[in-house]
Amino acid sequence: MNLEDIPSERAVLIPLRAEDADDLAGLLEEQQLREWLSVEDLDALRARFARWESRRSPDGAETWLNWVVRESREGRALGWVQATVFGESASVAYALLPAERGAGVASDALRALTRWLHDRLGVKTLTAEIDDANAPSVRVAVAAGFERTARRAGDEVVWERRLSH
């Protein structure tokens, strides 16, 4: 699947490539993100991003879509967003570089991604798995229209956004 740039109010989402790992190396500063990404260093991050460029899970059942979030004017990397799509549902995740947090960019990027998934792929239900201790991520989800559910995925709460039409 060929991805396109997705403009948002504060940034632009650009299809992720292996070479974007250099600009997103700051994600490796946090142990939780390293664990989630299953990487420990920049070379492993680059290899992970290269695998994601296929846009498909190894079994072909899911579509893996990833974008680097870049500042609109200067193109500076701010973070990353992703969607794992299966039918009319998608699971989303997001992370901003530590220095870029708190300005609303993650919520803005998640809203833009949500619109794109609905308009281009017909996604009607989006979920995000968020640890209760991650208050900033909860704020991002709420600002992007997600609601807390009673469901859990391991130690994380499932947040959901349903779209009509």
UniProtKB/TrEMBL annotation:
PROSITE patterns to which the protein is assigned, alphabetical: GNAT
GO MF terms, alphabetically ordered: acyltransferase activity, transferring groups other than amino-acyl groups
Record's protein name: GNAT family N-acetyltransferase
InterPro entries registered for this protein in UniProt: Acyl_CoA_acyltransferase, GNAT_dom, N-acetyltransferase
Domain N-acetyltransferase per the UniProt entry, residue ranges: 14-164
Organism for this UniProt entry: Solirubrobacter ginsenosidimutans
Organism lineage: Bacteria, Bacillati, Actinomycetota, Thermoleophilia, Solirubrobacterales
Pfam families: Acetyltransf_3 (PF13302)
